[in-house]
Write a structure and sequence with these properties.
- It contains seven helices and nine strands.
- It is of the alpha+beta class and about 240 residues long.
- The longest helix is centred in the middle third of the chain and has 7 residues, at about 120-125.
- The structure holds manganese (II) ion.
- The site of manganese (II) ion (MN) has 6 residues, from strand 2.
Length: about 240
């Protein structure tokens, strides 16, 4: 795992994204492995799924985001490793830069491999793991659909599938639509764009149209407000005589 490809694509005097420390081997007494999903309104809306492993964040771009339904397999394009510091990045990448647009920490927490040899599983392209996030939990799989040559050779070239295993965290809820707020700051994409000099209109196209959001002041004060969505109420029926 190395950050060369990550750094090659970015100009750190322009983008607020972290350059990342030199990758270091994980300490035996280190805290649990980080997990994060960043919602990213770039040229296309997608969700960046990241798992800490050996000093970097293994990363996949998931166009439709995760599904809690075990029958639904979500395409996940393998992308370059990101620095660990990226896990807390929420803000605006300037237009014209790589990935230009608004980034939200959509979910965050920790994860645990379910396989004794995770490196072998990575090389094979068949991962099983448990997520402990604010929105996602339970057992999941990431499976490479085709392509050989191991984990490194697969970056940028291979499609994987993100799949929820059947357990008590599985459901039919459309979680990407139902929980559109930042897990870190409670903001919508449009809020993040507005507060960081980004393109608010473009960012807003990644937010659900029917969200009733907390007032700006409330969103700033509360670190983790309960996401609240109001479905369009049916028009009241007027009785005709
Ligand atoms: Mn992205």
């Amino acid at each position: 795992m190395a950050l060369n490809e990550y750094r090659k694509k970015r100009r750190f005097n322009v983008t607020p994204e972290p350059a990342g420390e030199t990758s270091v081997a994980r300490q035996a007494n280190a805290p649990a492995l980080k997990y994060v999903i960043q919602k990213h309104r770039a040229s296309h809306l997608h969700y960046d799924f990241r798992l800490e492993w050996k000093g970097v964040l293994l990363s996949w771009a998931v166009p439709k985001g995760p599904s809690l339904d075990p029958a639904v397999k979500r395409l996940a394009m393998h992308v370059e490793d990101h620095p660990l510091e990226y896990a807390s990045f929420e803000g605006v990448i300037p237009e014209g830069e790589y990935g230009g647009g608004t980034v939200m920490v959509w979910d965050e927490g920790t994860w645990e491999p379910e396989q004794p040899d995770f490196d072998a599983a990575l090389a094979k392209g068949d991962l099983k793991f448990t997520l402990r996030g604010k929105k996602l939990g339970g057992s999941w799989a990431l499976v490479r659909t085709h392509g050989y040559g191991g984990y490194r050779a697969s970056v940028g070239k291979s499609s994987w599938l993100l799949i929820k295993h059947r357990d008590e965290f599985a459901s039919q809820e459309d979680i990407a639509a139902a929980q559109p707020f930042s897990a870190a700051t409670g903001r919508l994409l449009a809020d993040i764009a507005r507060e960081n000099g980004g393109n608010v209109q473009k960012a807003a196209t990644g937010d659900p149209a029917d969200v009733v959001r907390p007032t700006a002041a409330k969103a700033k004060r509360a670190p983790r407000p309960k996401p609240e969505i109001r479905r369009k109420a049916a028009a009241p029926r007027t009785r005709r005589r």
